[in-house]
Design goal:
352 residues; alpha+beta; nine-stranded antiparallel β-sheet; five-stranded antiparallel β-sheet; 10 helices
Length: 352
């Protein structure tokens, strides 16, 4: 009888404990759902997608994946990425003279990672892009230094952990990490403020001037980030002029690519509009500041876009530019008409 009583007590104890555990598990279904979603966002692995490329092995002009509707091309320092109906175009500082390769990786969620790998004498420079099903984002560029040349991408592993993209190589090479939330989209929007972007890239202004101001949308139409231009206009001084000089350099290179190299991502009409918006920013700053600190403006020879058009292309661009500006009412830009007049006072020795 005593044994039976003990057995009943034990059974009652286990039933009570079981009910408490079930109650604890079922008490917060929302938290359980959140935990499940959180685990799904962690450690998403990307697998390489083989691209079909045309051109040389280490300098292909175009690579595609028909199945994934992806096309990547590189011509005269301009990379163009098309995924479905979304287009992203940007300038690459490294010309790829030592060679380059393009790589594509995909996740089960149909996200994509694009790596443009330009070869350096002692390593690689990776330009990295991320596609999230709605836009293509430029994550940034990072350098990988290697002591002994090998196919470092053979064992590459790419994982996404929440908002962080991690590129791992093994072989004692430091992982590359990118914050997806702090990236620039193909529609030229960002999750961080313009001030943060500009401050972050102050020592490397080409990251902004070559990639973020003049872009193309998914319909291949020119987009202009006037907020960045406004920032440059308000924050340039006689000494702090790195963005002004970088913008002038970018635009003059685009002019040369169009008229001399015959390789430009822009139409002539688009290029003139780029010149208009850029020079409305740079040229008044040049006029205001260069005499205050001549060394920082190369004795007045740097920082002015319209004078370059006037002196180098007097019979072609200069005439077409003035005609288009008049037709477009100078795009309602406040300084442009005055800067046209100022540019015509330059000669081969510099500003007036």
């Amino acid at each position: 009888m005593k044994n039976i009583l003990n057995l009943i007590v034990l059974l009652f104890f286990f039933i009570t404990i079981s009910c408490k555990e079930n109650h604890s598990v079922n008490r917060d279904p929302i938290a359980s759902k959140d935990n499940a979603l959180d685990s799904l966002e962690k450690n998403i692995e990307f697998k390489q997608i083989i691209l079909k490329c045309s051109g040389d092995d280490y300098s292909a002009k175009k690579c595609i994946s028909e199945k994934d509707k992806v096309a990547i091309s590189f011509l005269e320092k301009t990379i163009s990425i098309t995924i479905k109906d979304i287009v992203f175009k940007a300038n690459i500082e490294n010309s790829g003279e030592l060679g380059y390769q393009m790589y594509l990786y995909g996740s089960p969620q149909n996200n994509k990672v694009i790596i443009f790998d330009t070869f350096l004498e002692n390593g690689h420079l990776f330009y990295t892009y991320f596609y999230d099903n709605t836009s293509i984002k430029y994550l940034g560029k990072k350098e990988v230094i290697i002591n002994e040349e090998s196919s470092i991408l053979e064992n590459i592993r790419i994982n996404k952990n929440k908002n962080e993209l991690i590129i791992s190589f093994g072989n004692s090479i430091t992982d590359l990490k990118f914050n997806i939330d702090k990236s620039i989209n193909s529609d030229n929007t960002s999750n961080i403020s313009i001030s943060e972007i500009m401050e972050k890239n102050k020592s490397n202004p080409e990251e902004v001037t070559n990639h973020l101001i003049f872009t193309k949308d998914r319909n291949n139409k020119l987009q202009i980030n006037t907020e960045i231009l406004s920032y440059i206009q308000k924050n340039t001084t006689a000494q702090q002029n790195q963005y002004t000089l970088a913008l002038e350099k970018y635009v003059t290179h685009e002019i040369i690519k169009f008229y001399d190299d015959k390789n430009s991502p822009w139409t002539e009409e688009e290029l003139i509009k780029i010149i208009a918006f850029a020079s409305n920013t740079t040229d008044p700053l040049h006029k205001k500041f260069w005499k205050e600190s001549p060394d920082n403006w190369h004795n007045g020879m740097w920082g002015n876009i319209l004078s370059f058009c006037y002196l180098v292309y007097p019979e072609t661009l200069w005439i077409k530019l003035q005609n288009q500006l008049k037709k477009e009412s100078y795009y309602n830009l406040p300084y442009l008409k005055e800067m046209i007049s100022y540019a015509s006072e330059f000669d081969k020795f510099g500003p007036p």
